[in-house]
Design a protein that fits this description.
104 residues; mainly alpha
């Protein structure tokens, strides 16, 4: 499922917009409590970076496919992003037949 550049740009714009919205809501709440601007600014920037990081990770997890080893107790896994059906099948076979099994 290869994503087009336009779709990636739209997703990126929504992620940045969502993170900005969360940061501005926190900033406005702090402002109404009378917190000085010198303290609001670092709080808003830290919330912005944390929210952006979280939303990017959530989008990566949502848009990727994970293939795990089928052996009992093995923790090996492969994550494929924007792969075709052939890529997914290849990595599924690799995950099932990898040389080292971390059996407990």
């Amino acid at each position: 499922m290869e994503q087009s550049p336009t779709r990636r740009r739209i997703n990126g714009a929504f992620l940045i917009g969502g993170a900005c919205l969360v940061a501005l809501l926190i900033g406005s709440q702090l402002h109404f409590y009378g917190v000085p601007l010198g303290l609001i600014t670092p709080c808003v920037l830290s919330v912005l970076s944390s929210a952006l990081w979280l939303l990017i990770r959530a989008e990566e997890a949502w848009s990727s496919t994970r293939h795990r080893c089928t052996a009992q107790g093995c923790t090996f896994e492969v994550r494929v992003q924007n792969g075709s059906a052939a890529d997914n099948r290849h990595w599924q076979e690799v995950a099932a037949a990898h040389p080292t099994h971390n059996a407990v």
